[in-house]
Amino acid sequence: MKTAIVTDSTAYIPKDIREKYNIHMLPLSVIFGDEVYSEEVDLTAEAFYEELKVQKELPTTSQPPIGEFVKLFKQLGKENDAIISVHLSSGISGTYQGAVTAGEMVDGVKVYPFDSEISCMVQGFYALEAAEMAELEKPAEEIVARLNEMKKSIRAYFMVDDLTNLQRGGRLSGAQAFVGGLLQIKPILCFEDKLIVPFEKIRTRKKALNRVFELFDEDASLGVPLRAVLIHGNVEIEAKQLKAELEQKYPHVEFMLSYFGPVIGTHLGEGAIGLGWYKK
Where are the transmembrane segments (predicted)? Predict the structure, then answer.
């Protein structure tokens, strides 16, 4: 059985890794005024954060058109028996629902839309795992079962420097953003029931990062094989240093480095740091 793996741009899987594992990517869009950019295609994370500094208004974001899903699914259906389409949380985007709708419109291939209930490279973990199994020609149903099993151990926490963008973008309530800004709190956020919610409110950036690492240690200290990713919002030097420290402390963990790209960066802003992981 031949299965194709699809994800969207918010997984932020590096192009070389997507090509290596034959993962197909549909981009979301970022709109600055009248300019529409497809993230990971004609707008890099670096260029996005530079543009963010000079723009007065926060950009908006949009999901891939249904037609793009249908076009890709039809193309993949010519050479595959099934398609597993992994997408960012349905609680913050309609992208997953787009895959569901498009899957119902395509004949000759079985489409399995998968709601990661999260985003960024943690979402990418699902696509990578699926691609690795697809290479071994595992049945699509078995791959989906593994992805659902992964959900039980996946954890991710992220710290933002400023709640303003999340509040303005409607991804966090105004009251929470107001309290965070007033008290100069560096909140730790997580995904819960498909939504971005406050996990803990901490006073300083250093203490917030240390708290995230404490949460990671609860699993990493058990010695079981983990795959983890450190994610940053245009603070690569800091992220690389933190990753090196974690690698030294946890040699049994496979660490990756990733970033909050344009769509997610629109809501989290510059300076955000996240850590996600799951049991291999």
Answer: none
The class (CATH top level) of 3-28+63-150 is alpha beta
Report the length, in residues, of the chain: 280
What's the CA gap between 158 and 276, in Å, rounded? 8
Residue burial 10-31, b: 16+ Cβ < 10 Å; e: rest: bbbbeeeebeebebbbbbbbbe
Closest CA to 213 of 184, 256, 176, 246: 246
Q: β-strands 226-232, 253-259: how paired? A: parallel
- pLDDT tops 70 at residue 164: no
The most confident of the ranges 58-62, 86-90, 204-208, 267-271 is: 86-90
Structure tokens at 83: 């398609």
Give the pLDDT confidence of 226-261 residue by residue, as tens digits: 999 999 999 999 999 999 999 999 999 999 999 999
Could you give the angle at the alpha carbon of 230 between the alpha carbons of 36 and 180, nearest 5°? 75
Q: Name the region of 151 (left: φ>0; alpha: ψ -120 to 50; beta: rest).
A: alpha
Residue at 207: amino acid letter: K
Q: Alpha helix (H) ranges present in the chain?
A: 15-20, 45-54, 66-77, 95-105, 120-135, 140-150, 164-168, 174-182, 205-220, 236-249, 262-268
**Residue 33, C-beta contacts closer than 8 angstroms, at least 6 positions apart:** 55, 57
**Second CATH level (architecture) for the domain 155-279:** 2-Layer Sandwich (3.30)
Domain boundaries, the chain: 3-28+63-150, 155-279
Q: Please state, in angstroms and rounded to a whole number, the distance separating the CA atoms of residues 184 and 176.
A: 12
- 125 token code pair: 């973990």
